[in-house]
Amino acid sequence: MKKYPKTEKYDTNWIEQNWMGPHPLWLLEDLCGHMDLRPGMKVLDMGCGKGITSVFLAKEYGVTVFANDLWISATDNLRRFTEAGVADNVFPIHAEAHALPYAEGFFDAAISIDSYQYYGASESYFPDVFSKLVKPGGQFGIVVPGLRDEYDKGYPETLKELWSPELFTFHSNNWWRTLWEKTGLCEIIACYDIDDPKAIWQPWADWCVEHFEKEFGDGGGGAEFDKNFLEADTCNDIALIALVAKKSQEK
Ligand SMILES: C[S@@+](CC[C@H](N)C(=O)[O-])C[C@H]1O[C@@H](n2cnc3c(N)ncnc32)[C@H](O)[C@@H]1O
Predict the structure, then answer these.
(1) 200 near 22, Cβ under 8 Å?
(2) Ligand 1 centre and the CA of 121: distance in Å?
């Protein structure tokens, strides 16, 4: 598998105590290879979860981060940011994706790792909300779980038994590209399937088997879901999709 040298500097236990999906720092490091983040920039980390991506952005790129999440409280995240020594540059915010407290054009970049699919797979979210957060010429970068292709039923046959309605936000990279590109509000800089998606996803799936119920209190099969989902994917249709765009100057 590809190496992620920036991520290697971070303690694996800290990552595993705070991740909420397929290795967020590997996904972020891959994405940032296609972005131009500079010290002092203001960056939105949308759906940051427990904020390890926010810590990484502040430490690796010297940016100021607004660490926005819904399920995790700002107070919890402040404690983590203080422990990580970044509380002066990473600000925890508790806000829902359709009710954000930010001024239009405030950010140099808006990033989202394994979260945008929860609210952004509609026609309206990018033009009405996400695009407005960033200044003209600013950057967008997201990674979402998805599929290598589009299917008539919405899913490949191999995943039929495990499919549930919320998974219909899983799409191909071309579907995501078109969703943003057709608005005319941005130029697509990169849109691709990240290499070895199952190798990136597997450590999280293994962790879930042992820790999910204790951590997230789910008795409904959540612990085994990711492991079963990856195993069922015998035709390798599961993807982790990175999309990077630049906001048009005149918008
Ligand atoms: C799978 S977790 C990923 C968290 C983190 N990015 C990571 O990779 O560990 C998805 C995150 O998206 C956030 N999220 C989901 N729906 C949201 C919404 N409507 N508004 C804001 N955040 C939302 C949740 O709070 C959650 O922390």
Answers:
(1) yes
(2) 14
Strand partners for 141:
111, 244
**In this structure, which residue's CA is closest to atom 9 in ligand 1?**
20
Q: Could you state, in order of their start, the residue ranges of all structural domains in the chain?
A: 7-197+238-247
Ligand 1 binding pocket (C-beta < 6 A) is 19-21, 24, 47-49, 53, 69-72, 96-97, 113-115, 118-119
What is the residue-level pLDDT of the chain in tens, covering all 251 positions?
Answer: 899 999 999 999 999 999 999 999 999 999 999 999 999 999 999 999 999 999 999 999 999 999 999 999 999 999 999 999 999 999 999 999 999 999 999 999 999 999 999 999 999 999 999 999 999 999 999 999 999 999 999 999 999 999 999 999 999 999 999 999 999 999 999 999 999 999 999 999 999 999 988 888 765 678 899 999 999 999 999 999 999 999 999 75
E strand residue ranges, the chain: 42-46, 64-69, 90-94, 107-113, 134-147, 186-193, 238-247
Q: Which fold has domain 7-197+238-247?
A: Rossmann fold (3.40.50)
Atom of ligand 1 nearest to the CA of 112: 6
Contact, 109 vs 141, CB < 8 A? yes
The Å distance, Cα 24 to ligand 1 centre, comes to 12
Give the residue, out of 44, 98, 112, 118, with the most ligand 1 atoms within 8 A of its beta carbon, to mutate for a pocket test: 118
